[in-house]
Amino acid sequence: LQCMEVWGGTAAADNGVVMPGLDAWVFAQPFQADAEGGDIHYLSSCSTGRVVRLLLADVSGHGSSVAELAKRLRDLMRRYLNYVDQAALVAEINREFGGVAEDGRFATAVVATCWTPTRRISLTNAGHPPPLHYVARRGAWSSLANDPDAERRHATEDTLSNIPLGIAAAAYDEHRLRLDPGDLLLLSTCP
User: Fold this and answer.
1) CA 107 to CA 145: how far, in whole Å?
2) CA-closest candidate to residue 41, choices 109, 105, 98, 135
3) What strands lie across the sheet with 36-46, from one edge to the other?
4) CA distance 175 to 36
5) Are 113 and 53 in contact (CB under 8 A)?
C-alpha cells in the first residue's frame, strides 16, 4: 500500500474529511484544555482512495504529561501503516511501543481498514472500548464485540490476545463487516 496521511494528531480537533466511499469526523479535546494530550487520531488513504486506514489510540495518563509518548506512538503508527495484515500491524506496533513506553505506560487502540470498492471494513482492537456499529437496514446499534453482522478471525489461543499496547507480546483478533449506505461506525476513547 502506498499511503499518504490525510490527517491526524494529538491536539484538539473538530473536523470532518470525505474520502472515496467513507466520510469521517473526529472530535478530540485534550484533558483540561491542554494543547496536546494522550488521545491520538490518524487517518490515511492510499493514493487511489481505495484503501482507507483509521487509527484511534489513548495513552494512559492525561494531558501534556503524556503528549510526547502519544507522538511517539503516532510515529510508530505511521511507520507500520503499510502492513496489509491488520492483526500483524497491531502486533508490531505493540512490540515497538513496549520498547518506548516508560513508567508502566500503555495505550489502548483500535485500527480500522476500509476497502472502499467493496465497503468492507476490518477492525482490530487492542484493549480499547469496542466500536459501535449502526446498521441502517435494521435501525439498530450494536457493539462490535457482539455485532451479528461481523465476521471474526481469532488470534492464536496460546498467547495473550487483544490487550493494550506496551504491556506484553500479544496477538490480535480481526473483525470484518460491510458498511452499507447509511451505516455508521463510532470509535471513541474514555474520558
Assistant:
1) 19
2) 109
3) 3-11, 36-46, 51-59, 107-115, 120-126, 174-178, 151-153
4) 31
5) yes
C-alpha span between 151 and 154 (Å, rounded): 10
Q: What are phi and psi of 184, to 5 degrees?
A: -130, 150
DSSP state of 87: H
Residues of the chain with pLDDT below 50 are 1-2
Q: Distance between terminal CA atoms of the chain?
A: 34
Q: How far is CA 64 from CA 8, 68, 101, 162, 188, in A?
A: 17, 8, 15, 27, 20
One-letter identity of residue 170: A
Q: What is the pLDDT of residue 157?
A: 65
Residues with Cβ < 8 Å from 143, sequence gap 6 or more? 130, 131, 132, 133
| pLDDT at residue 105, as a whole number | 87
Instruction: Tell me what pLDDT residue 2 has.
Output: 38
Q: Which amino acid is at 191?
A: P
Please state whether beta strands 3-11 and 140-143 pair in parallel, antiparallel, or not at all (unpaired).
unpaired
Quick one: how far is CA 24 from the chain centroid? 13
Instruction: Give the number of other CB atoms < 10 A from CB of residue 173.
Output: 16
Burial of 169 (0-12, 13-18, 19+ CB in 10 A): exposed
SS3 percent helix, strand, coil of the chain, rounded to 5, is 20, 45, 35
